[in-house]
Amino acid sequence: MENYTVDEYALCTRFKSRRRKERLAKEDFEKHLIQLRKREKELWKKRKDLPLIPLENPYQKGWQRSFVLREDVARSSEAEFYRTLLEKINTWQFSSEKSFKRKKKRKRRNVYVEKIQTVKEFSEWEWKSPKLELTEKEKAHFYKRERWCSNFKRYKIHYVFNEPWRYVLRVSPYMITHTKMVDSDLESEIQILDNYIVNLNLRNKINRLIHGSSLKWSYYQKENPKETSPIKNKSLNTLYQQYLDEMI
Questions:
Q1: Is 122 exposed, middle or buried (0-12, 13-18, 19+ CB in 10 A)?
Q2: Which of 90, 113, 142, 239 is deepest in the core (most CB within 10 A)?
Q3: DSSP-derived pairing of the beta strands 142-149 and 101-106
Q4: Rounded distance, CA 192 to CA 199, Å?
Q5: d(Cα 21, Cα 23) in Å, to the nearest integer?
Q6: How far apart are CA 201 and CA 195, in angstroms?
Q7: Cα–Cα distance between 149 and 123 in angstroms, integer?
Q8: What is the pLDDT of residue 13?
Q9: Secondary structure of the chain in the HEC alphabet?
Q10: What's the whole-number mean pLDDT along residues 206-214?
Q11: What is the pLDDT of residues 224-239, one digit of tens each?
Q12: Could you tell me the pLDDT band of residue 8, with boundaries at 50, 70 and 90?
């Protein structure tokens, strides 16, 4: 067996450079964050899948409001069609007051106005999605409408039901009849993992690694980057009509 000196051994051995060690440490840390995120989602899914337990003594917690068929529509020959459609576009609101009013400041005074509730509207993405449950006959009862979206700073297309008079609002007590099963061991593990992420300030790093940004939802990019103004190429009458629609 040949005898190597220290210098010859160093030349024959692939020592890790400082830069490579830092890169490997960073990759291991990122893999650790990905595993944390996977484990967190698994725990959340387990908590979501816990069964409901019926209460011995159900109790009322406020009021709920939803749409039902009008009496004359319910007696008509098309009652079954509109009842099936309602199951797909019905909406619910919950309130501690039966009047369903909310506080609003008007002329430096607090007044109570009734909450607005409509049947479900579909965005352009939902309308074109293959997961949309509406049939072609049901789609014929919707019309396309443009509405200004303050979040995205542009006009967005919605598909609105054109016969809302066929449904009326009904207020009923909101009863609590079941409660979610609580697994103490599962809750403890979720809390330990959450404390670890929060205390070491890892939430933004995980989101940036998984979603490419510290925020889960990326910012909206305009379809036409050359369009600098949302009111460009719109007449004054169109803008005034859209303003009136928003005030309704």
A1: buried
A2: 142
A3: unpaired
A4: 10
A5: 5
A6: 10
A7: 12
A8: 57
A9: CCCCCHHHHHHHCCCCCHHHHHHHHHHHHHHHHHHHHHHHHHHHHHHHCCCEEEEEEEEEEEEEEEEEECHHHHCCCCHHHHHHHHHHHCCEEEECCCCCEEEEEECCEEEEEECCCCCCCEEHHHHHCCCCCCCHHHHCCEEEEEEEECCCCEEEEEEEECCHHHEEEEEEEEEEEEEECCCHHHHHHHHHHHHHHHHCCCHHHHHHHHHCCCCCCCCCCCCCCCCCCCCCCCCHHHHHHHHHHHHC
A10: 81
A11: 444 444 545 555 555 5
A12: low
User: Rounded CA gap, 53 and 180, in Å?
Assistant: 6
Higher model confidence: residue 14 or residue 118?
118
* Phi, psi of 114, deg, nearest 5: -75, 140
Strand partners, 133: none
Q: Does the pLDDT at position 53 exceed 70?
A: yes
Q: Which residues share a beta bridge with 143?
A: 160
Please report, as a single letter, which amino acid is at residue 169.
L
- What pTM does this model have? 0.62
Cross-strand pairs, 113? 102
pLDDT tens digits, one per residue of 138-193: 999 999 999 888 888 889 999 999 999 999 999 999 999 999 999 999 999 999 99
